[in-house]
Amino acid sequence: MTLEIRQDSTLPLGASFRDPSGFIFKLENRIYRQINHSYQNDYLHLIESGLYAKLVEEQLLIPHQEVLVKAPRPDLAYKIIEPDLLNFIAYPYEICFSQLKDSALATLKIQKLALDYGMSLKDSSAYNIQFHHGKPLLIDTLSFERYQDGKPWVAYRQFCQHFLAPLSLIAYQDSRLAILQANFIDGIPLDFASRLLPLRTRLTPSLMLHIHLHAASQKKYANTKPASNRSVNQTALRGLIDSLEASTNKLKWSPSGPGWAAYYEEEHSYTIAGLEHKQRLVKEYLSQINPQIVWDLGANTGMFSRIASDSGAFIVAFDFDPAAVELNYLDVRKHQELKILPLIQNLTNPSPAIGWQNQERLSLIERANADAILALALVHHLSISNNVTLDNLANFLQKLSSHLIIEFVPKSDPQVQRLLLVREDIFSDYTQEQFETAFNRNFIIHKSETIQDSQRRIYLMERR
Amino acid sequence: MFIKFLFIATQILSASPDKNTAYLDPGSGSFIFQLIIASLVGGAFIVKTYWKRIIAYFQKFFSKNPKDGEE
Lengths: 464, 71
Known about the structure:
The structure holds 2 protein chains of 2 kinds.
Chain A: E1 22-27, E2 30-36, H1 40-48, H2 51-57, E3 64-67, E4 77-83, H3 97-116, E5 119-121, E6 129-132, E7 135-138, E8 144-146, H4 156-172, H5 180-183, H6 190-196, H7 205-220, H8 234-250, H9 272-289, E9 293-297, H10 303-310, E10 314-319, H11 322-334, E11 340-344, E12 372-375, H12 379-383, H13 390-400, E13 403-408, H14 414-421, H15 432-442, E14 443-450, E15 457-463
Parallel strand pairs in A: 9-10, 9-12, 10-11, 12-13
Antiparallel strand pairs in A: 1-2, 2-4, 3-4, 5-8, 6-7, 13-15, 14-15
Helix pairs in contact in A: 3-4, 3-8, 4-6, 6-7, 13-15
Chain B: H1 2-13, H2 26-70
């Protein structure tokens, strides 16, 4: 199973046009990277210094093979490499606080190792860090340049915009500010972050330095050429990295509020025997599909993601609530669950395609690569809370995958009654019969069974 | 170190308003900022490194004693 990326083969992919060192392209469903002649010396240093081997050993850089594939731009080409394939490409506005923090710390660890080997990161984009086997991994092999003594860190601004600004906004102001990352594709501008952060962050030396004073300096020296006789020696550069690391480590966020304790609410909608029955059914249906990649929509803290993961599949566990995703990720990290990737996704407003020509970062639907979708205890949230008709829902889900395991929660269910408490019941079509009719148009219903001690029903469906 | 920090803060914040505020060039501003804070972060790093070594020395020293006693 490969990522479905929409561009034609051998054209540089949408996110890969800025760096003159090379570009990513797709050929026969495989992803390659052309390295240009201009990057030859840096690439040779990366390999020959031992930095590449060290970073791969530490699981910080994506491994690759040098391959003999026809270069899309032979006039520029030095080498073609084939990096390991990822199961899913996630964007900074889809990851939770601790994932972003771990990505930041991984970036700084990579920079420290790079300095040990006479190199330095020339960018520090949060988009370049992806979660692979449960850990943050740099996926851009061309992010390194040979270190020049005295040169300031060229990626310092980007690090602060991509990592420190969103992390501090979540930690000190509101977790919902993370969505700003989707509007500012090169990270949150520091003057903006500085205005949004509460006053007390000016008393926090690390944020005063790297956000507030940094932003003020950007404004003051906007059109000034740095004096050529001044430099940042390596001790100062290591000091800068050390200071950023300490600043990042200090940032904490723990979800709170009335919703925080309610994550198992859905699970409380079943008796013990009912929950076991539901788990058994999901396992049985999954074993009939035998998927490699599963998207668990409305995964909550990941109970059913873990059941699916036990079947050997890789699970992308989406939930709209950053707190649930945070809790899920902390569990993944604690138990080293390598095949679960928790991500934030609001299905009523899924990630759009953004960036240059709307092609730099793909929409959720464009990244659909699952062999099966789990949609458990989800239908009522989309249909009752968001007025999505059952036809419309079936149409959306058939775009995502060929197989679907879905739970229908009827109107008589206490959870649906709770949703209807605060609004008029305009959902006369929300019945099991209408649900089956609507889904029958897009899917073949192979199996279904009512959960024990419950009126909820689980279906195994296949796209027509 | 704190005085140095205050000095940097004063230096940057007391700047007269830039006439070209409509256009931000974060690249040069970030470069110059690193030049300004280089001695602060570099100095802090040296102090931290030596402090860690001193702590490590004493930890080693004190953790050796009971062992010596046992022997």
